[in-house]
Structure prediction request, 231 residues.
Amino acid sequence: MADEVKLLGSCKSPFSRRVEIALKLKGASFELSDLDVFFSKPPELLQHNPVHKKIPVLLHRGKAIAESLVILEYVDEVWSSSGIRLLPEDAYERAMARFWAKFFDDKCIQPLWMSCWTKGDMQKHLLEESKLHLTTMEGALKDKKFFGGEEIGLVDIVVLCSVYWAQIAQDVFKVDVISEEKHPILCRWMKEITNSDVLKDCLPPRDELFLVFQTNKDDIAALMTARYGSN
Prediction:
């Protein structure tokens, strides 16, 4: 069908979950192709994203769109009259949302995630870097209910998925990456947004993700060390 929507993603991926949330908030019907991509690259993924070879990939009207931030803007534009707006109508506010979403992806995700999987001096350095950048994100959130103001928007979806995943990973490895002492504003926001009527049912069960990380923690840690180096 011309309007068929299919998402190549994974229930284990926070980047894939961003797009799932956006589509659900828009009320868009879609098929999720749940791919195992952590240790391999399925042919379907290579066919539709030969450049980066990563999920998520959105297939819509026979065309493929890659990269989660790009997909989120595409979803907001295509389904502009449905559900909530992910980006503000005001041009300046829209630019700021794009800025903070990109800042989070460029500066926060790697140290946040790698803090959970590394050890020793490397972990210490990553914890310091993660705290610095997350504190900067808190500055954008200060005195606001959500990053989008009174309404949930693109930045909230972007930050939520990665922080939710990291909070579970830190419990598996017993690392203090995110805590109320370090990040009171972010933790307050997490409680607000995960209990909101809009998003409370859009995240995977915590115990399921915990089991995935617990079961595969040695393999994931080895892969992270091989990819980013050891101390």
Observations:
- The first strand starts at residue 5 and ends at 9.
- The longest helix spans residues 91-117.
- The chain is about 60% helix and 5% strand.
- The mean pLDDT is 90.
